[in-house]
């Protein structure tokens, strides 16, 4: 490759390459990286949305698919966190897993506006609902609009940019939830860690608050069939559950393929 007098690149056969071809290639490679990064983020958020759900029939039917999608993520902290929880869910007896979920989220809400903040909760909920409506997405009827699982599903499957903006808007609650889960020592903390890792880094010196300002700090876990503080219904666990092959990677389909 040589350079002609007018600055254009010239190959060994004397053919002139257009100006900016190197920049064009770099831009194409960067675009490819952006696409792969967006896919990884969507898979992470969709997987977390499933894994944070109550461990009932739908959860266990989805678990093999989630485990397969997580196994295709690049090695790193996000994959390790989600893989570790998939293994935990696959090997823990279902009644124990159900009881643990009710205990953890009966006292630590997945509704992110319940963790305090400077804006009235009703106003924030209205903003979130408006974002969903503008994107043509109907939030699950059994979950409030600020429920972390709903926000994650919206971001993963409907509008990545608007979904990330919502996660950033609700980030104080997300951070406080993550800290509360770590304080409790639950494996669910790692799932929330994976979600937090999909967001841009905080500005230098900015640290999340340590205050856990949930509005119902001492509420007991809800009994089977009762409504939890999240607004979701807690079904009774199935009896005689076999934990084998819960994460069989031979499950058909791929996480997030359908719109």
Automatic annotation (TrEMBL):
Gene Ontology molecular functions: metallochaperone activity; unfolded protein binding
Entries under Pfam families matching the protein: Nitrate_red_del
Biased composition regions of type Basic and acidic residues, renumbered to the chain: 200-209
Keyword tags: Nitrate assimilation
Gene Ontology process terms (BP): chaperone-mediated protein complex assembly; nitrate assimilation
SUPFAM superfamilies for the chain: TorD-like
InterPro entries (UniProt xref): DMSO/NO3_reduct_chaperone, NO3_reductase_chaperone_NarJ, TorD-like_sf
Matches recorded under PANTHER family: NITRATE REDUCTASE MOLYBDENUM COFACTOR ASSEMBLY CHAPERONE, NITRATE REDUCTASE MOLYBDENUM COFACTOR ASSEMBLY CHAPERONE NARJ
Protein name, UniProt field: Nitrate reductase delta subunit
Biased composition regions of type Polar residues, renumbered to the chain: 240-250
Top-rank taxon, per record: Bacteria
Region span, Disordered: 1-26, 200-259
Source species: Nocardiopsis sinuspersici
């Amino acid at each position: 490759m040589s350079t002609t007098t007018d600055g254009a690149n010239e190959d060994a056969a004397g053919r002139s390459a257009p100006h900016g071809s190197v920049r064009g290639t770099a831009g194409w490679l960067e675009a490819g990286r952006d696409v792969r990064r967006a896919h990884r983020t969507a898979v992470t958020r969709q997987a977390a949305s499933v894994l944070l759900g109550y461990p009932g029939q739908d959860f266990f039917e989805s678990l093999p698919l989630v485990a397969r999608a997580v196994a295709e993520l690049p090695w790193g902290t996000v994959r390790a966190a989600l893989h570790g929880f998939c293994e935990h869910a696959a090997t823990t007896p279902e009644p124990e897993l159900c009881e643990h979920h009710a205990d953890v989220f009966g006292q630590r809400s997945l509704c992110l506006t319940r963790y305090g903040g400077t804006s009235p909760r009703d106003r924030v909920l209205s903003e979130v609902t408006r974002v969903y409506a503008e994107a043509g997405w109907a939030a699950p009827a059994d979950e409030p609009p600020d429920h972390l699982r709903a926000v994650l599903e919206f971001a993963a499957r409907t509008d990545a940019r608007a979904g990330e903006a919502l996660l950033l808007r609700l980030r104080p609650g997300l951070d406080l939830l993550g800290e509360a889960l770590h304080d409790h020592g639950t494996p669910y903390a790692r799932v929330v860690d994976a979600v937090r890792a999909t967001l841009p880094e905080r500005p230098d010196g900015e640290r999340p608050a340590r205050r856990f300002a949930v509005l119902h700090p001492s509420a007991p876990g809800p009994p089977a069939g009762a409504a939890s503080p999240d607004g979701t219904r807690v079904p009774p666990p199935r009896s005689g559950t076999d934990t084998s092959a819960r994460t069989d990677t031979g499950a058909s389909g791929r996480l997030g393929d359908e719109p």
